[in-house]
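Help wanted!
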Amino acid sequence: MSGAITLTPLQGLPEVTPGADLAALVREAAARGGISLSDGVLCVCQKIVSKAEGALVDLRTLVPRPEAIAIAEEDGKDPRHIELILRESVRTVRRAKYVLITETIHGFVCANAGVDLSNAPDDFTAVILPRDPDASARRLREALLAAGCGPLAVVITDTFGRPWREGLVDVALGVSGIAPLDDQRGSKDRRGRELQVTIPATADALAAAAGLLMKKADGVPAVWIHGAPLAGDGNARQLIRDAKLDLFR
Amino acid sequence: MSGAITLTPLQGLPEVTPGADLAALVREAAARGGISLSDGVLCVCQKIVSKAEGALVDLRTLVPRPEAIAIAEEDGKDPRHIELILRESVRTVRRAKYVLITETIHGFVCANAGVDLSNAPDDFTAVILPRDPDASARRLREALLAAGCGPLAVVITDTFGRPWREGLVDVALGVSGIAPLDDQRGSKDRRGRELQVTIPATADALAAAAGLLMKKADGVPAVWIHGAPLAGDGNARQLIRDAKLDLFR
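Answered by r_m:
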């Protein structure tokens, strides 16, 4: 089975709370599962990173603006939830009934600015995206390297919808230790012809693959990917298309 | 390593020509690699399916319409290539210099209607998408089942760009033997709260995962995925968002 890639769920992580040492929790889960955290990519879902970093907002502290009240009324939602989405956004990209797609303060274009009430610790706490997911990935990677793990890369994943296609796939929000884009421009096809515009979004493909094992209800928040080549370095901001070049904003 | 998923490249497939018996070629490659085609998902890249089905067009037979000539001139391309893209499309979704995003006759929204000159057998032959990728997946699956393989699903993959994000990921063009969407609506999160709008696009995640091993230049056109649950059935048309509900067409 030469060249195989293996995805292994890191099971049995406890409920993550603010201040939790994610690197330690990941190492414990790996040890329990007999997984050596060497020569691979650790994919971690955004939710536990946010929780560990305390990226939580008490909805009761928010005063919704008129726009938030109007949207909430139309969609039958909590206006403070919409207020938080607007605070986490720099711009609304599309709005229709039950749909609020914005550009987040990080530059991601997604539904509800990644603000999530499911799997939150209680009914009035919302989980928001990490302030700087690339920095989160870098910190987690460095903590694991310092503990003797590696070589490894870290990809922080979240589940996004997409235009034109139904269903959600996981994408990379934060990246450390691997090139998020595998630039093959200039390489040749099998007939020696130069390959055009073939730039696989490796970090997103890793995230999507890990998503096969990250089922929200089952509580598998981290997946170890062994066998994917660890080439280059970079960050998830490289995955965000420049707004000026984007035909869909 | 309970619950692990393994992706294995099917290596050494010969150059596929019209009329080729893909099921036989896949079985031979699996046998050479020591891979048992049982209890898994076979991902096959669109290109070899198209070639086996003879979904090839000799550009010299095409007479470009004025629109094709204008676009080709602007982009420095062969007008017959653009003509073929327009023939494979029902509608242009976005057009900018060097970018032609259309809705294909199948309903996919993608660049250049999936018409590809790279890895084509010569300089004037273009490879187009299979006429009915779901039927292609079904036929390949049935041929493999008839040969004693299985249980298995087949996903035909292609590499698409996406709005807002750089780089390409593989998606499912054709599906047989697995539900392309894993509808978790109505299930509960860990705190017993109902999960909202959480419908993973399983077939697209499988395609993206397989894409990690399908490097054009390396000639790995098929990947065997073992360990992903084979739940339900359906087709890739279910992955196409109804144009009336789509905010980005």
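OP: Thanks! One thing I noticed: The domain at 57-127 of chain A is CATH 3.90.1660.10 (CofE-like fold).
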